Every structure is written in C-alpha cells, then in structure tokens.
From TrEMBL:
<dbReference type="GO" id="GO:0003676">
    <property type="term" value="F:nucleic acid binding"/>
</dbReference>
<dbReference type="InterPro" id="IPR036397">
    <property type="entry name" value="RNaseH_sf"/>
</dbReference>
<protein>
    <recommendedName>
        <fullName>Tc1-like transposase DDE domain-containing protein</fullName>
    </recommendedName>
</protein>
Amino acid sequence: MLEVWLMPQLGSNSTDCIFQQDGAPPHWSTEVRTFLNQHLPKLWIGRSGDADDVFCSWPPRSPDLIQCDFFLWGYVKDRVYVPPTPKQLKNSKYAFVMRLRR
C-alpha cells in the first residue's frame, strides 16, 4: 500500500508532509519501518525501534495517535449494533410489505 499508493500520491512533495500510522502489528513490521526509513526519513510518526529514523516516536495505544479507538468506534458501535425492538421490527416488516404492494 505504501509503495503502490502512498508514494505515487506524494510524488516529489514527500518532504511537505509527515506520515502518521497506528501501532497495529502489520504497521510495526521491520519491512514497513525499513520502507519508511528509506523513503520518508524523519517524516513519519508511529511505533519505532532504536534504529528507526522517525519524526517522533509515539507509544502504542496512545490516545493522541489513535483517537478513533477511544471515541469514534465505540460511538458507531452503539448506534449500529443496536438490535431492533420487537415493535420496531414489526413496524419495519409492515412498512416493507406495504411498499411491495404498491
């Protein structure tokens, strides 16, 4: 993804941005960190080791780095995964049947 999509998007302007990623295991692999060190030295933020050339190193599960984990996903889950009440389900079935009859 980085090589195929990100780098072509950045083109020659890669020094005008700072790339940020979370601490997911695939993002923490040696291969990914080596790629970032070579192509975006001192221009990436994420989990890093001693040999990495990062803009700044952030610890895993940092609320500054992965804000969605601390608010958004829980909020979305509470809104999406709410089972319909029997009355709502009955009304939905009725409305669906009425639309089919039209």
